[in-house]
Design a protein that fits this description.
single chain; TIM Barrel; 6-stranded parallel β-sheet; 22 strands
Amino acid sequence: MSSILLKNIGLVLSGEVSQPILDADSILIEDGTIKEVGKGLAAPGGGQVVDAAGCAVTPGLIDSHCHVVLGDWTPRQQMQNYLDSSLHGGVTTSISAGEVHLPGRPKDALGAKCLAILAAKSWANLRPGGMKVLGGALILEKGITEDDIKECAAAGVRIIGEIGLGSVKEPEEAAQMTAWAKAAGMIVMMHTGGTSIPGSSVVGAEQILKVRPSVVSHINGGPTAVSLAEAREIIEKSDGAIEIVQCGNLRRALEVADIINQRREWGRVILGNDAPSGTGVVTLGILRNLALIAGQSQVAPELAVCMATGNTAKLYGLNRGVIAPGKEADLVFMDTPMGSPGKDLLGALSEGDTPGVSMIMVDGKIVAAKSRNTPPAVRQARLV
């Protein structure tokens, strides 16, 4: 049995909306999962010790919207190792919204099904830099049947990629396929807002309310957003998760965050990057989302962290994203960046500053002793 103790933690953010800040200063990890969270915990004999030096520990960030293809490469931007770079922005899990950027992507029913299964199985065996990727999102093309969806689900495909990026665009047809997918236990994403890439569609409140996806993808646009009135209608009349992305309309992101705050529906929001996209590869996109929402909306910073961690994990049935016994020990050590007026992580986020990341753990293993991408953290965790 392997064990590691995290001690001298200045702030433990749980990722759970019901109790976002824990009264704890240490975390004990055994065999890759969290064993205990508390105060003054002791390391078992022979175990490793990480001194957090007073910085904060959060669950690993989850990017709810990433257009992966196969391997750590994006043809959209002709860039390699972008997922590894995102890991250094604190993202320990990325979720595919559809492998739509694959060169020569098949657009028939059989090809779409085969691509989703291939991607799901490939990503199950690959961890860029240590990052976990939930890949393989079936793009809905005309001709896909209920049996096709069941076959994909049985093969490990857990996601329907953004509805609107394939040839299925009419709400009635999409609604039928959505019902099949939900019955098979799949999460259904749906493009929201203006067109993003050639072939995608404009999707507003009317289409969302007819289809009723599991996730209202990028309600703040990918990159062009629906109107504020339509965004409010979607929030009030739908029951899907509301996704805010970095590569979208930032004004609408803040307006949506404030509506959610007024409704006290913090557990409903998830945060994504929506990269690679025409906007580019934003490796610190989730951290920037946190800083945007915590710094400029009425949402408290500790609740914003839940939107980037536990909320997404709960939606997708992942045993991570929350600091609690039995959860996978995917953790990020963060602090206020040097030069920020914020005195700790929450203060820095409230100022709108991008946090400094020191150490990143996946399944209780240190995959990065210090981020190569963020500003330097004032307090740096270290293995002792």
